Amino acid sequence: MNAPKYVNFEILKLEDIRKTGSTVAIGKVLRGLYYESSNTVFFSDQNGQDWTFYVNDTCRIIEQ
C-alpha cells in the first residue's frame, strides 16, 4: 500500500455545507493529502473544517 502524498487539486463540486471562514470553493485549487487506496484527497480548511474530495467526482488532481 502506498503512503499518502500531497497534491494540488481543483474542486469540482461541494457535497457539504461550508462553515464560516471556509477557503473551499468550486474551481479553487488547493493542496491536500491524496490517498491512492481510496482515490480521495483530504483537506483541512483554515476554519478547522475537514473535507474529503473524491478524485474525478468532486475534485481533479492538478499535480502529484
H-E order: EEEEE
What overall form do the CA principal axes indicate?
Answer: globular
Largest sheet: 5 strands, antiparallel
Give the spatial strand order of the biggest sheet: 4-3-2-1-5
Put simply, the count of helices is 0
Distance from N terminus to C terminus (CA atoms, Å) equals: 17 Å
By secondary-structure content and strand pairing, the structural class works out as mainly beta
The residue ranges in which pLDDT falls below 50 over 5 or more consecutive positions are none
Determine the mean pLDDT.
Answer: 94
Rg on CA atoms, Å = 11 Å
Q: Beta fraction of the residues?
A: over 45%
Question: What is the strand tally?
Answer: 5
Give the helix level as a range of percent: under 10%
Short characterization:
The protein has 64 residues and is mostly beta strands. The protein has strands spanning 5-11, 29-35, 40-44, 50-54, 59-63.
Features of the shown structure:
64 residues; 5 strands; 45% strand; mainly beta; single chain; five-stranded antiparallel sheet
Report on this structure.
The protein is mostly beta strands and 64 residues long. The protein is built from no helices and five strands. Strands 4-3-2-1-5 form a five-stranded antiparallel sheet, with no helix packed on it. It starts with a strand and ends with a strand.
Please describe the topology of this protein.
Blueprint: E1 5-11, E2 29-35, E3 40-44, E4 50-54, E5 59-63
